[in-house]
From TrEMBL:
It comes from the Bacteria. The keyword Cell membrane does not apply. It comes from Salinicola corii. This is C4-dicarboxylate ABC transporter substrate-binding protein. The keyword Transport applies. Residues 1-24 form the signal peptide. Belongs to the bacterial solute-binding protein 7 family. Pfam families: DctP.
Amino acid sequence: MQTRHIATGILALSMMGSASIALADTWRFGLEETEGSVQYEYAQAFKQLIEKKSDGDITVQILPYGVWGSSYSTLYDAIQNGSIPLSFGSGFLGGTVPESQLMSLNYVMPNDQLEATEILNSDAFMKSDAWQQSFRTRGLVPLAALPEGYQVWTANKAIHTPADMQGLQIRVMDNSLLRATYQAYGASPITIAYGELYSALQQGQAEGNIQPVWAHENMGFYEVQDYMIFAEQSQFIANLIANEDWYDGLSDDQRQLLDTTIHEMVKKGDEIQKQLNQDRLKTIEEKSDIKIIHLDQAQRDEFRKLAKPIRDDFVNLVGERGGKALDILLEQEKARGDKSDGDSQSS
């Protein structure tokens, strides 16, 4: 359970210090997840590269979930004020950067996970004015995207079609686009704190759950659910972000070191999540009798049709800049010859 790490890990941000962050040789790296997660394994590999390339002049201090606190808003505030200059931000980041909810849309990216990773980290998208300004207007800089594997559904009944999801109390993150998406599927989405989710599933307060495979295993959610459903509707995507003043204040050499290392980590990140999810799925299958369901193309298309109108909801919610960012993703997908639903969204 991740909650076991929290009580022993909390440190006051005031003790971290924030002086001279632009010149600091210790880079504090905040994670939304604990040890054993995709973010943690990525951060460890990133740390090794930065410290090796800088000949030890730069130390990366990894701050997993629980070390900086347990409220994601605390982490995002710390990034904005510079006390933690580097961090990941995912579904909950929508409250700080509404446009980041783009990553929550279903059936937008290609099915091939590496191809999706490359599109998200392409200069055409990541360095686009639409995406950069979405973050910079909030004092942040988007540096990379880390897909952590497909979001997999669990439930106590089989789900093959939207009809099977009618009325299902499925837990989603506190994200308006996710709620709208699962309402469109016919479910009754609810929000429950991550640390309370296991008991909620066990007691029937929640009937379903959405997580990458590694998280289902890490938190033991599979122990209290009967079915695991792969619909390939979206990957769980974490945004690697930096404090704007810190990033812009880096020396040319430091910024080049950071940027080249992040570029190297694109493929490495994909390898990390695939291996971790593969290993964790094997563990789940060995330790339980949970039934695995893979939706076929026709079944996925039923959900895809219901998810497509949520793109309009996204643009109406966040505005023109978000619509442009969505268009760039769809255009990059189409340019690569993907045959999925890649039509332009905004006018």
